[in-house]
Every structure is written in C-alpha cells, then in structure tokens.
Amino acid sequence: MTENFKFIDYGGNVYQGRERMRNGFAEYFSAYPKYKIQVEKICLSGNDIAFIAKTTGSHVPSELEEKETLIFIAQIENGLVAEWRIYTDLEKSKR
Q1: How much is the pTM?
Q2: Mean pLDDT in runs of 10 for the chain (95 residues)?
C-alpha cells in the first residue's frame, strides 16, 4: 500500500492511511477468519485492475453473499496499491 492508501467500501465510506488500514484489515480478518474472495474475472486498464468476484465468510449474511457479485478496483502507483474500492450489484435495501 502507498503511504496515503485509500479504501472505499461499497457504501461509499472512505478510509485513508496505510497504517490505519493495516490495523483495520487485521481487525476485519481476525473477526472474519473464513473470509475469502473468489475471483471470477480480472480486467486490466492502465494502472487499474478490476476483480469481478464473490465472497464467502464476510460480515454479509451468507444468503446475500450467494446472490452478490462484487467488483474490487485497485489503482496502482509505483507498484503499490494506492486505492482499493468495492462495488456491489445488490441494492442497499437488500443488505
């Protein structure tokens, strides 16, 4: 991650800073140790990488995980991830 790494969740919440996010990711993975991302497709465009995927073991109820497709977009700067953004295809009301 870059020093000013930015994480944007599917709700549009923005979290910034490498050390803050290292701690945040460690807490999340500790709370959800079975969390997995199953990548179905990878798309590259310039310095951006998009992963079309499904997840299991997250904070989202499993019945929604089964229906949900996510897009993770990573922006790369000098070989490091500068931004990680998540989009979902489910309406907020279904979450």
Answers
A1: 0.83
A2: 95 93 93 96 96 94 90 96 91 51
Distance CA 50, CA 70 (A): 10
Spatial separation of the C-alpha atoms in residues 72 and 79, rounded to whole Å:
17
Residue with tokens 């179905």: 40
Give me the pLDDT at residue 91, please: 58
Question: 81: number of CA atoms within 13 Å, CB side?
Answer: 17
Q: What is the pLDDT of residue 49?
A: 97
When the candidates are 3.10.450.50, 3.40.630.90, 3.90.1740.10, 3.40.50.2300, the CATH number that belongs to 6-90 is 3.10.450.50
Query: Which segments of 1-95 are extended strands (E)?
Result: 6-8, 14-16, 36-45, 48-56, 70-77, 80-88
Q: Rg (Cα) of the chain, in Å, rounded?
A: 14
